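Continuing the series of single-chain predictions for the mutant panel. This is the parent chain; the variants come on the following pages.
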Amino acid sequence: MAEIVYINGQLVPRSGAKLSPFDHGFLYGYGLFETMRAYSGHIFRLDRHLARLRLSAQSLGLIHSILNVVEGKQSLEVACLVTLEANKLKDARLRLTVSAGEGNMMPDPCTCSHPTVLITARSLVAPPPQKYESGFAAILSSLRRNTQSPLSRLKSTCYMENILARTEARAARCDEAILLNELGYLAEGSTTNIFLVHSGELITPSLGSGVLAGITREAVLEIAGSANIGTLERQVEPKELLEADEAFLTNSILERMPWTWLAGKPIGTGKPGQLTRELLAAYRELVNETLQ
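Parent structure:
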């Protein structure tokens, strides 16, 4: 079956999807995206992903164009679901991308009147179970997250910094690269949020540390609160990683990935910790509840 994509209100074969060469998302990275995971045909926390997208679009001045051009035809929620259905997928990875659309060659957003909305869906390729038993190894990236930049709070298509960090990780034969902010505190991974466990307490860098408000991060904090697990959102020093009892990384595709090594040194015992395992199980229970 040909891969089907959603573009500007229409479902078309991938081979028939066309973008303008003057799209400002392509030329200048002026756009946003959301990566989502579907379980048994249900997109987990789709409402939260779309709420984050709309909030980010509003900060970029894109929200009215999106509502007028796309949601006047059908809601973004429906667009995501029909894309999933058109590809006959149940367990899938979806990406919703919104750019400012076609404009002049110069970087002038005022010339972009019709945004581009693109949704793609592919069969999920998740890490193998063995990876959840061994955990991720990571390095500290040479790049720094700028807490003063609005991009640190947006899932922007201007993603070069994240790509360079991932390139560093691959060169070091690691799974992830961790970015510090300009003050030297922990921010996030190239595609993940960070959690540490110390003396039974869950610690994660605060949003003010230059952190994306991850949807899975949000779910972890909710689960921990329901289980009466103490949580702290604050500035976190890098040295705390090697002092932690355990650590894990989160995003929509990985869910909760144990993080066991940093720069060749073990975090805790160098194996997935008990609380990490319990929170992963609780997260999957939460997913299953939404399917019922």
